[in-house]
Protein 1
Amino acid sequence: KKNDIFDLSGYVMFDYDRFDASLLEDGTESSSLVEIRRARLSLKSDINDLWEGKFQVDVADGDIDIKDAYLEYKGWSFADLTVGQQKENFGLEKLTSSRNLLMIERSMVTEAFAPGRSLGVSLSGELPSVYWQLGYYAPDYATDSEEASSAVTGRIAWVPWQENDNLLHLGFAFSEREYDGEQFRINERLEVNQADSLLEGKKIDADNVSLQGLEILWVQDRFTLMSEWQQASVSSIEQEDYDYEGGYVQFGYQLSGGFRKYKNGKLSKVSDQGWELTGRYSEFSLIEENEDAETYTIGLNYTLNKNVKFMGDYIKAEHFEAGTSVSSGNAISFRVQYSF
Amino acid sequence: KKNDIFDLSGYVMFDYDRFDASLLEDGTESSSLVEIRRARLSLKSDINDLWEGKFQVDVADGDIDIKDAYLEYKGWSFADLTVGQQKENFGLEKLTSSRNLLMIERSMVTEAFAPGRSLGVSLSGELPSVYWQLGYYAPDYATDSEEASSAVTGRIAWVPWQENDNLLHLGFAFSEREYDGEQFRINERLEVNQADSLLEGKKIDADNVSLQGLEILWVQDRFTLMSEWQQASVSSIEQEDYDYEGGYVQFGYQLSGGFRKYKNGKLSKVSDQGWELTGRYSEFSLIEENEDAETYTIGLNYTLNKNVKFMGDYIKAEHFEAGTSVSSGNAISFRVQYSF
Amino acid sequence: KKNDIFDLSGYVMFDYDRFDASLLEDGTESSSLVEIRRARLSLKSDINDLWEGKFQVDVADGDIDIKDAYLEYKGWSFADLTVGQQKENFGLEKLTSSRNLLMIERSMVTEAFAPGRSLGVSLSGELPSVYWQLGYYAPDYATDSEEASSAVTGRIAWVPWQENDNLLHLGFAFSEREYDGEQFRINERLEVNQADSLLEGKKIDADNVSLQGLEILWVQDRFTLMSEWQQASVSSIEQEDYDYEGGYVQFGYQLSGGFRKYKNGKLSKVSDQGWELTGRYSEFSLIEENEDAETYTIGLNYTLNKNVKFMGDYIKAEHFEAGTSVSSGNAISFRVQYSF
């Protein structure tokens, strides 16, 4: 067995976080921590013109997790078929590879809602000015379940104009998710990965969860603007309803020239090496729990070449209960990212 | 250090199982489950004409397990020497790579008895019309043991005639295994991997285990017939004896033409792409426990190309205690298999 | 994304140990055990002339651990910069790759003191006749800590003369390590990996640890002499001091000719295939605990080619408490090592 067309790649991210005690659950003094944030290895093979396969694993703390593991069929004119473990098509920021994010961490709402990877079957197609995806998945909420949970997730993006460095993307996505009594719970950090989860919702034995999201992406030469709004309605098995919502607005500006690339309805990497200035406002609300959070971030990224990237973010985060600020703190995060 | 002759490969299997509640220990309704059945990565290197190395890992549920990890010396005329972790040479179906099985799962008797991989040293040779293997192994029954367990396992196959698409293979294999008080227990599913283990033998503090097996493989053009009979005698440290036995008959028929390949005393992949019809009868008996099981399976496989294969099986399984059927159920299993 | 300059390699070591009951904590009879001692996979990429990246994982017992994971910048004339997870520069034997050791296991003092790999930043440079390294690290003593521990580790080696097969290396290394109350404890085997840890020091809630080490390496044609002396001073958070010290002298002699290579202040592999005779005397003392150990080892290595190496060691170990021998035993170890 010979592997003629075969691509091995990967990336490692080293992170340093320094943050106030207020971003810890029981913190008494500020913390400085380092970690390997992600270490990923990917194998991609073009089986032939019609079939493509990908296999990706993540290594962390002694564990290895299968991320992407799918087979894609590109032989139909109306849509491509993907079978296996894959990202569910919900959320522009979630669908953006972690290597290509504007900020070091994704926004609270993306982390809280976006389903991530599941075993399933999906279709993705392209019409004039439109990208669409639709999939049926068996998310893995619980490992001992006798019955796979199920989810239908879809996304459509209208791109009224699209040139290399000038485009507008307007997207809508939804996900209808059966939980069969498995637990749903909001448990989120305020966009600092080595700090603690301060946003803690009720533990809900969920019957089903409905997600909706709106996306805007505008690329105009050196300037990128990206924003999403998402909401989740959770029905418990005792017929109670819980609502959550949030969103963010973020921008990037290529100080050294160039632009952010866009491909198949997703944000991709910068076109040129050099400096990028970024900023974000992000918020998240647990409506019935009467709990909120807000963050403001500014950042500076430096892309050395296709393999090496540096990122720095300053984050100001505030946490509210019943409308009153219960904690507020600052953090700085640095990342060295190495792709191969 | 440059790696001139080096082969990286792997495979991923995605499985869907739907089965009756009767195939679960405490099931009340039928189940549908999906899983990544196997995800394997292999490195093979031809060191030179005389030495060859292989290293293979399996990734599952956060864990990574070393499968094959051995060094093979091919410099002697009478036999090849293999040192390291390797499959013990017992059981035609076990020695068949999971990528090349006729059915989605191996038979009950193979799963129950065949030793699988152990650290050890083995010889494998070829005489006119005969393949033989003999090895001394240190199976890893318990991790805290002060003393490695040991096993001697051998196999001989007589192949009275052998052309590409026309051969007869008659094999015998044995394994004499020291347990030193480690536990032996039959704990098997009825050939549906995501269902529960219904065949549950006594937990025996074993002194030693003797295994014997008979193998028949007949390939005649599009038709492949394969059958094994195996038995195990377990002596406990209290001098009690327990006996187990079982076997299967299975066939494959290449609807689209071609034949099943055969190599070094083992079944290999199909020669051509296309459809294959399969069937199996399988049984297993725990004699002292007076417990039995039987399965009937029919299946259909489609080999798209050397990278992609689809399999579907319908299984009818029955479980007996003291000769009386205690549960019986049906299952369907589908597999998408991607090799790279 | 195409990977033009990219190097995948790895190695697997298979070990057999047979040792007396006295090398086990509660042993009653001698033991024979086998194991896969190390299974490592490395990816190395030359990003360009200035940047280089390495990623290495170790697979063992279901776990996968990130070993080297760093990015190296070689663009400055005075020093190279390394960012990420890397070996701290302490101890000649520790810095020698496990593939190139003279004996199967490293000495007690190296295993007890040398910090191994940490996340951090280091500089390494070269002056006429001098190699130096200096780094700042965040060792991972505890996983739940709110504050990263920190360490400054440095090493300098003077090489008064250096030809291919004739050199003298005199080195000094230190490490100043903040523990912030995390536990320090000596817990070492007597250079037989599958035996038990007999050297057991007090569990100390450490405030800081100071390490110092001296190194000599002398290569003269077929003969290699290598020796280190190291000491550790541990201050507990209750202001108590504990001292530990130890060292070894070991040699290698290339029976078949050739010599041991030396590169960037570290011992490397043999220049030619063939036989190597080795020997070692090693000792270690827990001063306040009044506990000591000594080992004598002789060994024979055979390097078949750049991929395959065999090693055999005979070890005589003795363990003293308050100056009195409490146990003494013999062991033999064999290794088959396969690099690819």
Protein 2
Amino acid sequence: MSSDATAPFTDCPIPIADAKEILMGHGSGGKLTARLVEELILPAFRNRFLEPLDDQALLPVGGGRVAFTTDSYVVTPLFFPGGDIGELAVNGTVNDLAVGGARPLFLSLAFILEEGLPLAELERVIASVRRAAEAADVLVVTGDTKVVNRGKGDKLFVNTAGIGVPLPGASLSSRRVAPGDAVLLSGPIGDHGVAILSQREGIAFGGDVRSDTAPLHRLIAAVLEAFPDVHAMRDPTRGGVAATLVEIASRARVGVEVDERAIPVRDAVRGACELLGLDPLLVANEGKVVAFVPEEGAARALDAMRSDPLGREAARIGTVTGEHRGMVTLRTPIGGRRILDLPFGEALPRIC
Amino acid sequence: MSSDATAPFTDCPIPIADAKEILMGHGSGGKLTARLVEELILPAFRNRFLEPLDDQALLPVGGGRVAFTTDSYVVTPLFFPGGDIGELAVNGTVNDLAVGGARPLFLSLAFILEEGLPLAELERVIASVRRAAEAADVLVVTGDTKVVNRGKGDKLFVNTAGIGVPLPGASLSSRRVAPGDAVLLSGPIGDHGVAILSQREGIAFGGDVRSDTAPLHRLIAAVLEAFPDVHAMRDPTRGGVAATLVEIASRARVGVEVDERAIPVRDAVRGACELLGLDPLLVANEGKVVAFVPEEGAARALDAMRSDPLGREAARIGTVTGEHRGMVTLRTPIGGRRILDLPFGEALPRIC
């Protein structure tokens, strides 16, 4: 078994590798997504800005540098405990800029509406976008609205693209991650995915599980101020912390060793995951960051995370190594070790 | 009857004004679209960058200025005579930057794919995006791919956002349009809409009607080089030339007088429109520009248009006046006059 998200599908038990059409798993953040992107999309557009494959591109524009990113949001249901698609669309794009070391400034906002969508729901989403943009201190400056026939969409999809400026001194890229780096996580995982699932399936889990959707740029700026030479950051959304770690291990050609006991998971989330047969490491987050920090800055970076209201439960969860390059190794609570691998698809489609 | 796209819907014969849900007409580029945008979306986000309501925002970023725009594309069918959704998504966003006087540089590319989409169709669209980006000399630098369940989308939707830099000396905005300006049109209208309709309905019209989708930034740069003080430009897409003129009349509070005989329309398009009961002025274009030029520069600007391969059939179609402000007046071929008004919706949904 390989943990390389782009490995050939020789170990696939079902003939998914030869799929001739789009499967739900192509959108899951797992191996099928990686394969689609790396085999079909990237080869068409190879250029030096796209090549780093970070969550945002850093572009030379008019003498300065501009960070640029885009995401579409197709989450269902539109409204869920702790947030909605509008808030997600702002925070997700803000976070994609922030994890690249940029200060988010401006967003575009493009709706694809299904005929029959109650205007009240659209109004609610717009109000939520406004509140989230204000909270994240970004401006919505351009937009678009399209309508598709009933049955040809699903109420409301939204795309936000974002523009930011690089924070001075920051140089974040998966390619900089190196053996010896500490792996920091800003808080408990799995809340977003479990909140969506509980809403979708009408299951109330013990305790109040709410999406963690939040703008991370202030926490990230604080970390970079405390220790500017952070090597890379990622927000572990689709595919969860597992997808983030596997992607970094693969792209930076390093090993990542993680201590499963060190990973914060709320009891209610852990219970829900056990009930549903999900690994919290694979469940999406919308307000967490994973940081790869040289050892000498790890303590300062972790302190900075913990000083932010969104990072109070931050923890060091592992270390980057020069062994088992391309792989993520998990030390389990009972002292064993397992290779952390990604599923082809995942159990939670349309989570963001 | 009012020609103001934002007028209250007091003249509406059906109770569409009180719609409590999204109608196809909300995406048409007609009055319902204007109402949705101006009553629901804009009030939520008022800021000085959004306020000019041009097709792109001009933003201060890192000491320089950056032009920023977004559009989603939901055209059906995906492939049509003269183009496809991929080419449209590049050219449309390139053109939105260009009509603001910016040089297009970078695009984002975000797909929403329906489960079951043949991979071959996605590959074809991606290849088309690549070719169009190369032809327009822009780079795709960031992207996203989401998948929705079968029956919750329609094969493939795509969003492109674009970044550009303002051309030196250009200052284009609907607010600058003033009485005395000449109204120039870069070529024959209606080709795109009729091409889509012929493909969709399986009707072959006399002659080969193909979409006019094309990147206009070189033509526009040539016009601005010939006469930098052009007041405003627009690409007349959804809602056609009529929507463009009505929007400018409304936003700039000017009258626009147009000579219907001066408007170039290909015979096959005119024939198709007569057959279908469509007004070519209301049919979408994807490779045309309308320019509002001070009289002293009109001849030079028109010559520059005609020197570009995409503008060989450019024509002066009218004049901006200080009379009938907010209205577009059409001189008809038989010497009469009529007020050019927009429909609430239009006969051609999902044209782009």
Protein 3
Amino acid sequence: MSSSERADLGRALCVITGASRGFGRTTAIEMSRLVKPGSVLVLVARSADDLRSLQAELAESDAGKAGLLVKCVVADLAQMEGPESVVSASKEVFSEDLDHIILVNNAASLGDVSRFAKSFTNMAEVDSYLSFNVSSSLCLTASILQAFPQRPGLQRTVINVTSLCALKPFCSWVLYCTGKAAREMMFRVLAEEEPDLRVLNYSPGPLDTDMQLVARSRTGDPSLRKTFSDMFTGGRLLTCEASCVKLMKLLLEDTYTSGAHVDVFDL
Amino acid sequence: MSSSERADLGRALCVITGASRGFGRTTAIEMSRLVKPGSVLVLVARSADDLRSLQAELAESDAGKAGLLVKCVVADLAQMEGPESVVSASKEVFSEDLDHIILVNNAASLGDVSRFAKSFTNMAEVDSYLSFNVSSSLCLTASILQAFPQRPGLQRTVINVTSLCALKPFCSWVLYCTGKAAREMMFRVLAEEEPDLRVLNYSPGPLDTDMQLVARSRTGDPSLRKTFSDMFTGGRLLTCEASCVKLMKLLLEDTYTSGAHVDVFDL
């Protein structure tokens, strides 16, 4: 631990979307270990079963036994009611003695990576992708910031789980690249507008998740598909844990430039 | 004219969105002067009156008298039927002796620049913005590429009218920055995927248009509003004509890297 690093994330309210699987699930577990007693996790996902199982696991953990409150919100963020139900649940569990609000915008979908840009003639498909991956993330973030306004003694941190795809075009990944570029710019604007806020665009790297399985089996571009496949067979995918530990270190050090894109491989 | 520059844009089918006003209107006029006889312009906008007036002006021009065909498509690109009606109209006027398809994705809206990101809690508002500014542009481009596939002797060029806002965050411009970043990435992916295609992300600079009037009067961030105001009073806005001439030069030279962001001030 560096001398400037804080020891914990405070008495925090952590809202994590896409918390039932992959990187979101690992983030929930890692955060539960770094928050002070009296903290609350609000876990959001579409799958009730997966959320309950994570909730049960957390209840058995040291943090759970020490009284960590875990609230599950089964919601579809592509629907108008999604962000609203997350905010309602967060307000319910909030208490005035919390000193840190952490929102992790992790939920995302890959889109159909088997097809090339010229095949996307259906507006409803693109609209629906952007609604889930971009609009809901802006509206949830805005709603959380309004629900928990700036006040002395309260730190507010917003994390966007981004990707190299926000910066670099990848063949047959038009929806994913477009959505990630949009989202990252959105959070860069937010960082400019709200100097009291800490905004982090964290790119977790190629993770050994279900999404990567789809990437290496379904990617339309043969060369990119082979790259993903080679990363898998060559053992070059990161575990969610390894990447998440680096994210936690960033949060504890708290020295990143607000709004910056920070890649796991830069750390 | 440099020695490598072509003298004209060929016998072209030019599809221009947002053609009734501002940069789109100027692009229609400039292109009409640079295409060969027998070419066709398909002009798309929501306002029938403004389109008819441009059509009348073009009919009186030298190009019009020489037989340039101008087809108006009154369409709302935010609606599913918008891109479809543009493609139908383009197919109607296409003839086999055309040797260049040029699609100018110019239509865009500013979004509400009087408010900051944290105020965007309404998903329908954000969805609608992204549908018009991002989805429609992808779906129209995809549909045009499918309608006019690659064949020997046919050049295909897709232009995206982009902005500095695609690269740099501006306070109180969250929708515009997000939409432009999304769109630019989309066209970068397209350029990677379709090596036969010429894709240009052209940033026309701060133009003396109705959009700039809104920018300097409505921008929520006082410092940015002053910047726009100072650019206007200091005479530092570009005319659409001056910027469009540079775009035409890029197209005639045809040496830009496909997918690249080219700013008017780089030229």
